[in-house]
Amino acid sequence: MLEAVTLIINAVGTRPAADYLEQITAQLTDESSVQTSLMYRDLPSGRRLEVEEILGDLVRYAEHANLPAPLLAAAYCQLSVHQRRFNHEQSELASAI
Q1: Do residues 53 and 60 lie in contact, with contact meaning Cβ atoms separated by under 8 Å?
Q2: Nearest-5° Cα angle at 85, 62 to 92
Q3: pLDDT digits (tens, 9 = 90+) for 42-77
Q4: Which residue from 35, 38, 81, 85 puts its CA 20 to 30 A from 92's CA?
Q5: Plot region of 24 (φ>0 → left; ψ -120 to 50 → alpha; else → beta)
Q6: Degrees (nearest 5) of the Cα angle 28, 41, 32?
Q7: Nearby residues of 4 by Cβ (< 8 Å), 6 or more positions away
Q8: How far apart are CA 97 and CA 84, in angstroms?
Q9: Full domain range(s) for residue 74
Q10: pTM to 2 decimals?
Q11: pLDDT at 87 over 80
């Protein structure tokens, strides 16, 4: 998925430096790392996810550049369903107060 994100970023005109890509790839693929993304931590904690702001933007950029991004699109679809459910539950809670 990192390769797809890199292709999308390159297509919209912001080419990251090669040494940065090497560094971030090493961090993200280090099997001994205990780091997790904020979205990953928010999901089990029941907090709002930034689905549109992160994955939605990437999927739209990919579509605009005619780049296939099936894994990003699948993640976006799945997490959008979760986010809509979360928003609905929050709305119901607010209405009950």
Answers
A1: no
A2: 140
A3: 888 888 888 999 999 999 999 999 999 999 999 999
A4: 38
A5: alpha
A6: 35
A7: 62, 67, 69, 71, 72
A8: 20
A9: 2-96
A10: 0.77
A11: no
Please state the domain count of the chain.
1
| pLDDT value for 90 | 79
Q: How confident is the model at residue 16 (pLDDT cuts 50, 70, 90)?
A: confident
DSSP labels, 1-34: -HHHHHHHHHHTT----HHHHHHHHHHHH-TT--
Give dist(CA 56, CA 39) in Å, integer: 13
Phi then psi for 31, rounded to 5 degrees? Answer: -65, -20
Give the alpha-carbon dihedral of 12, 15, 20, 23, to 10 degrees. 60
